Amino acid sequence: MRERLWDIWDRVRDSNRYVLAFGLFLVWMSTIAEVDLFRMINTRIERQHIESRIDETQGLIDDLDIQLEEIRTDPSVKERYARESYYMHKAEEDVYVFVDP
């Protein structure tokens, strides 16, 4: 058995040692290494997902900042917000709340 392995090694050493080294490197990088290829791919996918969530959240924050500035500066928007959110009303007004089924 040992002699057979040495025969294979002698043949590979002369002709395909770069291919063998590259193959061993691929096996090592894809399975054995602490930071293997599969973990790198999964980490990249997770990072892209998190970055897209950050972009969505930043867009939501920008929209809320615009709404807050409108509420602070425009009295009609402030009144509308109070009526819609807290069901406030003027004297002798009725408030009807419609609930979606």
Mean pLDDT, rounded to whole units?
A: 86
Write down the domain tally: 2
What fraction strand?
under 5%
Q: What level of helicity do the residues show?
A: over 70%
Sheet with most strands: none
Number of strands: 0
Output the structural class: mainly alpha
Low-confidence stretches: none
- What order do the SSEs take from the amino end to the carboxyl end, as H and E? HHHH
| Intertermini distance | 77 Å
What is the rounded Rg? 33 Å
Shape, principal axes of CA atoms: rod-shaped
Number of helices: 4
Descriptive overview:
- This protein is mostly helical and 101 residues long.
- Helix content is 78%, strand content 0%.
- It has four helices and no strands.
- Helix 3 (37-73) crosses helix 4 (75-86).
- The longest helix is centred in the middle third of the chain and has 37 residues, at 37-73.
- The N and C termini lie far apart (77 Å).
- The model has no long low-confidence stretch (mean pLDDT 86).
